[in-house]
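Q: For a teaching session next week I want to show students how multiple molecules come together into a single three-dimensional assembly. I've collected the sequence lines for a complex. Could you give me the predicted structure tokens for the whole thing so I can convert them for display?
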Amino acid sequence: MKKTLIAAALLGASTSAMAVAPGGPGCGWGNMLFEGQSGMPMHLLATLVNGTTGNATFGMTTGTNGCDTSGALTYSGQSLLGMTGVMEEVAQDMATGDGEALTALSVSMGIQTEDRARFNALMHENFAAIFPNQDVTAAEVMASITDVMKQDQALSKYLA
Amino acid sequence: MRTGLFCVLLCWFMPAFAATPSLSELAETSRWQALLHINPGATLRDKHQSYVDDDTFFLADSGKTDPLAELEATERALRAADSPARCRFPARYRFLSEHLGWQHEAPFSHCDDYNEWRGAIHAKRAVLVFPAAYLNSPSSMFGHTLLRLDQGEDSAVWLSWAVNFGAVSTEADNSFFYMYRGLAGGYPGRFALVPYVQKIQEYSHMENRDMWEYTLDLEQSELDWLIDHLWELKDINFDYYFFDENCSFRLLELVEVARPGSELLSELRFAEVPVNTVRALDERDIISSRHYRPSKSVELDNLRKQLDGAQQKLARALAEDPGLAESPAFKAEPEATRAIMAAVAYRYIRLTHRKEERTPEVAKRSFALLTLMNSLPAAPVPETRNPEPPEKGHGTQMLGVSGGQREGEQDFGELTYRLTYHDLLDNQYGFLRGAQIEGLDLTLRSTESGQVKLEELDVVSIRSLAPRNRFMKPLSWYVEGGLERAWAGRRRLVRYIQGGAGGSWLWGNWQPYLLTSVRMENNSEFGTFLTPGAGLDAGILYHRGDWQWQLGSVGHYFTNDEYRSSSQFAVQWAMTRQHGLRASLERENRRGGYDDEFKLQWRWYYD
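A: Of course. Below is the structure for the complete assembly, covering every listed component.
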């Protein structure tokens, strides 16, 4: 493994790495529902490592899963969505109207506790607009969320 | 009276008025020792030296072995206002400034990297996370631990940080070298800080491991010590030993930095099984609450169990063809049931395809199901009833005493020791059902005439009986090897390795299993050095309350025309968490005869 990648994955990786593509190049915790996040199958090595020792620290520390873990020192809505697997969880939560992924998204967008129920309801109502098809990208999803919030009196203030 | 009060007041204020403590006194304090990761005697390796295996961590040449020399060097290096060493050792600076009364204004103003990093970590709470065992990898029963730093929002743990200690390997290493070097200490270990959401993805979603989250009762100032010290460990190498100096051990050291003198590492720890980390923290009242996070497959199971057989079948078909949502059969169900079926179908398809390459076809089906879910009311996942916390399970080591009778031979007594960890008859509480892992299981037998002989030595025995159902079709398998007594003219000690694969099912409390089995045996009575054999391993488990029953048979036919099988009926009563009573009746068949054996065993689990 390249030393640079190890270093980037470790403590104190720079925020500038947020420019890295969603999930990082070749980052794969498996197949994701949405385009732009199509992972690769989990490394056989990673499977063996987990399977033979019960200690799964390797993936993160060495990049055996190909993940660049540096992209999220500070979360914004965009970078959270860009992380592998998160968009799928957000989609599921939006489809049903509640869940940890949706909460994380609203918190990362700075939405206050009192407005979160409103946010969840709005996302639930507009699911079809935000996720029009399975090939939607994180950037498009974020743009649609912004559009929907703009139309809402209680939530538009968070876009300022 | 008055002088007495004066004395009390004097004593009270003494520390404040006292002359600054000498460096040699400070070097002995538990905080300084914790900051340097000095081994207080927890392992025999590097006793009273630092565990850190990295020159850049020490400012004195003899820093690894001499805490005082390191303290003196640190004091010299950190005193200057623009000292670059301050930016590397903020916790050490805090230690010195508090004890030596340094009054520097904005001591880290020149430390851009540290300030940026520190500003991004707003931890309000520390949580120890234990991803529990998962089936089809019984070695995961050893588990793993990491630390989660929450930014304060109870409901937004996806935005938390995970502090993980792991070995740094090279990609070229194959798993064999990984195991060898991991055990032998060939890899450096490092701390990493990663988004917790990635850990959820990794454990709960990909590996289907339940996660247990234990909130630590640490105050803000204690947390600050921990985080400042984490920065000091950036890019710092430790030795990594799989058995003792592993992920769990290192986390205890971090807690020791946060709360020195908690004596988490005061006892000798031969093998640090991660669940014992939880126990160690629990015993010292550092854990304030516990939270269970079910894996994706447990959630699917909980959802599915709300449906009857026909509805499950329909949900399964819906996953293959979302168009069935328009079928009369689907539409005939009440809305709430339709919602559950849609959720089951969607979760099933995501679970089964998660580890594969994305295909347009699967993505299309998944999306159709997601849209269907959106059109129906939400179907909340029912909570797992009484999840069993792993730290409440039986101890990791076991001592057994037994007595029994063998047909045609004298009565016998036995002594058994097992280093680790759990078999299918042991008390199941807190353990994954159907998973067995044993390492170093030794039994000595003595007969009435007093001879003591090795009866059995299991080097390793792993068994994974993963139940199959309409949605999940896992393979069950086992592998074991060691020394045991087997018939070859007489009962002889033979060396063997055997394993196999097959299926297992769960019907209420009953769990039948059927596995093929192959065996390689080294037997001095057989003509060849290694004699292969093949056969079956089948049986049924029954669990109820504190009672665990097993009826099972395993038989092999060898290439030299030998035939052998053994059938066993056994029951264990889990009297208490740490004590069990086991009775077994065994028949060993061979070509032209058989022997019966009865045995009663008391099993004591500890550590």
